Amino acid sequence: MKQAEFTKQKQNQWQLLKEVLTDPELAKDHDLPKMIRQLSHDLAIAKSRLYSPSLVNYLNQLMLMGHQQLYKPTNRFIAPLWKFIKYDLPQSLSELRLYVVWAHILFYGVSIIAFAITLIDPDFVRNVISNAQVVNIEEMYDPLSKHYAKERESDSDFLMFGYYIFNNISIAFQSFVGGIILGFGALYVLLFNALYLGVISGHIVNIDYGSTFFSFVITHGAFELTAIVLSAAAGSVIGVNLLAPGRYSRLDALKVSGKKALPLMFAAFLMLVIAAFFEAFWSSSQTIPHLVKYGVGSFCWFWVLMYIFRRVSHEN
Fold it and tell me: Residues 23-62: pLDDT tens digits?
């Protein structure tokens, strides 16, 4: 076969390989190792038939690009994490959209109702939490409290970071495992935290400590509250599938639904780690002006809700 005929026959394949090597999105839809093996065969033919140096050099360069792409080192943590955030989690949010939407509606709906009731009836807070807890919360967010007079030590920040992670993840885990109790455990954790958030927020407004409370919670709350909602949604997936297993046995339904809900749970864990970081090192800082915290917190809420609901509204 003459060079011109060989080139004409293979040109489209080579051009496609070049595009695949330069476009990561396109690479997902093609078998790169197979394409490189074919290119290696073409290069061997070109050399054995003594085709022009320019053609051999072109194929060599293409082969080098292919090997660099195929064997490039990958970060074993960042690359899988990025894949999860960009592809796996959006797919799960889309597939489980009803659970995610209803979990948000229940959580924030109950919170708003509890907030409104507490504003109207200030004593309602004591029907939800004890007097000792009320006093403790008032001391925590009192603008005249001693702990607002100086910045917390850095070693204390790290200790609190660990505490927040343990506390937050334990709540999410309870919600997820609560799905095994036919979903009622997940529902209880969701509604209790919604009620708690609503009455505490209402009580803080009633006693006029809003400046210290809302500036503290606004940033990490974007991740922490969303994580609680997602973990409840994940637990609900398990509960609903156990209630109505269909053609599966309940044990198989547990396995299938657990696997289906796992991306939501992993996303909740990631958000809780982020929330713990902000709560320990940012939210508690006395040197950061409240307006800056409100600005950063508003951005975090916007980004989180846009990420969640853009994927929820996307049809597979």
Answer: 767 767 778 788 888 888 888 888 888 888 888 888 888 8
Asked if 29 and 127 sit in the same domain, the reply is no
On whether both 222 and 135 belong to a single domain, the answer is: yes
Domain boundary among 21, 42, 70: 70
Averaged confidence pLDDT in the chain:
85
Same domain, 274 and 158: yes
Cα–Cα nearest to 114, from 103, 125, 104, 130: 125
- Nearest C-alpha neighbor of 126 from the set 200, 205, 208: 200
Instruction: Note whether 44 and 107 are same-domain residues.
Output: no
Residue 187 CA, chain-centre distance (Å), reads: 21
CA dihedral (160, 303, 27, 16) in degrees, to 10, reads: -150
Closest of 269, 253, 103, 250 to residue 190, by C-alpha: 103
Q: Which residues of the chain have pLDDT under 50?
A: 154
Please state the domain count of the chain. 2
> Whole domain around residue 32: which residue ranges?
3-70
